Amino acid sequence: MRPDIIVVGGGTVGAAIAYGLAGLKQRVTLLDGSDGDFRAARANFGLVWLQGKGMGLPAYQTLTRASIALWRDFTTELESLSGAGLDYENTGGLFFCVGEDGFDKRLSQLQRLHNQWDGGEPDWEMIDRAALEKLLPKARLGRNVSGASFGRLDGHANPLKLLMALHQGIVLRGGTVRSNAAVSKIERVGSDFRATLDGEQITAPRIVIAAGLGSARLAEQVGLVVPLRPQRGQVLVTERFDPFLPLPASGLRQTAEGTVMIGATQEETGFDVSTTSDAASRLSQKTVDVVPALAGATLVRQWAGLRVMTPDGYPIYAQSQSHPGAFVALCHSGVTLAAFHARDLASAILDGALPTSLTPFHQRRFDVSQAA
Amino acid sequence: MSTVDLLIVGAGPAGMAAAVAARRHGLDVLVVDDQPAPGGQIWRSVETVAATARGGRLGESYLAGASRAAAFRACGASYDPSCQLWQIEPGYRAFVTSAGKARTVSAKAVILATGAQERPVPFPGWTLPGVLTVGAGQILLKTADQVPAKPVWIAGSGPLPLLYMTQLLAAGGKIAGFLDTTPRGRLKPALRHLPAALGKAGDLLKGLAWTLALKRSGVRTVKHVAEIEARGEGRLQTLRYRTDNGQWQETAAEVLLVHEGLVPSIHAPLALDCQVEWRAGQHCYAPVLDGWGETSQPGLFVAGDGAGIAGAIAAEHRGTLAGLAAAARLGKLPAAAAETEAAPARRALGRELAFRPFLDALYAPRPQVFAPPDETIVCRCEEVTAGTLRARAQIGRPGPNQVKAFTRAGMGPCQGRQCGYTVMNILAHAQERPVEALGFYRIRPPLKPVTLGELAALDQKDTAA
Amino acid sequence: MFRKLHDPGPQAVTIFIDGRSVSAEAGENLAAVLLRQAEGWSRTTTVTQSPRAPYCMMGVCFECLTEVDGVGSVQACLTTVRDGMRISRQLGRRVLSA
């Protein structure tokens, strides 16, 4: 039986959309790449995060806020369906400030962001060192830590469990997940779309391209030009500890298992997922500056992922004008935006029209000739 | 940062031979070794033990290590014992840690001589205190003059259990029984390789002598054991086993030593993106090497059992070849002279390698090693069972990396050294694909543990790109 | 579980395992000493607090992790004993020191 919709890309973005569509009673086929692909989804840090986001594009703050508002219900539904826990905590998040100027710089950055957004009261506050120490009684702070910004709506989850639960959720809702099913070509056949895999073709009236860094080539085939580049992020993870960090921080969080995740670099190194000892050293230095006792923690693994980066760093959501029924969905915050993708975005795709609130994320914003 | 011509990782038979050969041609050589003294695994503690009474009990092959260690000490290579390699970057830039301090070594050429490890043997209860590898038992005998307190059970297949049992009895240890897991019918296919193996008639006779000695000493042997289980409260207390056509038997046990062959240490070559190939006869990966031991990465060599299981003598010859090749590569020795000097080692290596197909066929691991029951912990570090892995294998056709992401198998400090092959085999079986189609986990640094403090203290002048 | 075949004699040193004084031989392998202790186990796991003991004796299994002189998660099989060495067996996850 032929699917109602094909989703190309089984990472966090594609899987969330496919999960949402399956929940709306669509026959979904999710086509995922292979074990050795770049797989940004497997390198995600795990923050479900608002503070500090959206500089220059207030719509992104709004989008992020909307997703976070949905995240708790999204978790409850997904956990009860799949039986897998997501380890989602949303009791707030921190951004550590080092030195007095670090504190001032963060304050002014968040104030600027707040002024750009014309919503209500701020959901963040600056906390000084004394208050921070009270929040983190089990972690002695480094000498130069001056305080932190605290985001009330921030939190974290296990990004791998999220991905696994989404895959299971799709199948439990009657969808199909195919691995090692890379799409080489998309063609329009009448009002349908035909995806060519290795030795087979699948046709459906709608198609969503959510293949991360592999999307540009496919999107072009349906009249969407999406400028993308890889941006490398390296992450460290330590051995497990008894809980000592009750709140996640940007770049430092303790997982439910007890491991400490440390991140991340932002490197323009092309399609290169090698790690560097330089990054290991810098990230470790940054960490022991904040929690000196972690100097004794053993590093268990270092890895690198490639962020799906657009020219302004913000998502691309678009339906093709030349090929209506073909959509593209790309971002590098697939965990934070998962709830939005599974709910509102999936509904919009089903309705065949993206809402005006998503207009700022259309890829034509990168088309300089149009803007002129 | 220290700068050398040649970095050798490992000071076993191959590492020492490579150092000696390279030094003969004037290379500036540093050898790093995770052990406190040279000898690798086969000659562990040989410098202190060879001259003692217990050294004599360990046999000729062990004692041969003493002269190698002496030659190594005298050759002029720098030697850093108790030093672990945790990363190598192109260039080559190696990162090591010892005595709580991480440092950088810059080398024009690198020889990985990190040897082999025992093939993981997962079975229910294998994580209980009291279950160790035969290799571990042998190391305890060599380094600490230590034997199981009570009569020991040994389960496995291959020359190593036979050798260990001989050494243990000579030392006064007691054996409760030997569960020989060599499956029925291995001798006939092995015999096909016998003519080639006869070049090493001495080794054949040695193996035969061990077997006869064990028979004479009355060690209780159960042949064709297909499955084993360890049980107990917090430690091994009961050993269960069944033969291929028998019922489950049960016996009290406090220490069980297991062995199902050796596999090359593959992590460093994989981490460096070296080409590897599946060796069907040995059920494992080995790096793709040219005749000198050079990998697909120029200037990076693998010597010793890391190139393929072939024993200490072969390892020495491979080390010599790699050392000569490094010297030639760095311009200390013209290519023709290197060929001439390498010729005896090449011939001797050929003879050693001719023996392997016979041993590999005779001691090919039983299938149960790769298909443990559902309740078996496969990933020891993260405590992931075979059942969990089998359940995951059905959804889509995930490879080891996807399964790792979903189950945490392979995420622990051993980085798949104890579970990687089992996971590959479980997935392959569930997906009806050949094992080698699955591939190994992607290997990431650190290859060995290093603390955040050590990393933070690394001089970033040395780490910068 | 294991016993030494000879007495260290003048080569004996004293180390402390969880505060208990234990006799060892100068320069010997720490994991070997741990395997001579009556309990057998030398740590409990971070996932289910299950008892484990050294398994491979060559640094590739990471079962022998112990705290040595205040430094956590050290591989005992790659550690040589010294007179006065203080060993703490790790129970489950490490507790971050102050």
What does this structure look like?
- The complex is a heterotrimer of chains A (372), B (465) and C (98).
- Chain A has 372 residues and is α+β, with helices and mostly antiparallel strands.
- Chain A folds into three domains: 206 residues, FAD/NAD(P)-binding domain (3-Layer(bba) Sandwich), CATH 3.50.50.60; 60 residues, no CATH class; 81 residues, D-Amino Acid Oxidase, Chain A, domain 2.
- In chain A, strands 8-2-1-12-18-17 form a six-stranded mixed sheet. A four-stranded antiparallel sheet of chain A has the order 14-15-13-16, covered by helices on one side. A three-stranded antiparallel sheet of chain A has the order 4-6-5.
- The longest helix of chain A has 25 residues.
- The longest helix of chain B has 28 residues.
- Chain B has three domains: 213 residues, FAD/NAD(P)-binding domain (3-Layer(bba) Sandwich); 141 residues, FAD/NAD(P)-binding domain; 67 residues, BFD-like [2Fe-2S]-binding domain (Arc Repressor Mutant, subunit A, Orthogonal Bundle), CATH 1.10.10.1100.
- In chain B, helix 1 packs parallel to helix 11 and helix 6 crosses helix 9.
- The model of chain B has no long low-confidence stretch (mean pLDDT 94).
- Chain B is globular and about 65 Å long.
- By secondary structure, chain B is α/β, with parallel strands linked by helices.
- Chain B has 17 helices and 23 strands.
- Chain C has 98 residues and is mainly β.
- Chain C has one domain: Ubiquitin-like (UB roll) (Roll), CATH 3.10.20.440.
- Chain C is built from one helix and nine strands.
- Chain C has a five-stranded mixed sheet.
- In chain C, strand 4 and strand 5 form a beta hairpin.
- The longest helix of chain C is centred in the first third of the chain and has 5 residues.
- The model of chain C has no long low-confidence stretch (mean pLDDT 96).
- Chains in contact: A-B, A-C, B-C.
- At the B-C interface, strand 8, helix 5 and strand 9 of B face strand 1, strand 5 and strand 7 of C.
- Strand 16 of chain A pairs antiparallel with strand 23 of chain B, so a sheet runs across the interface.
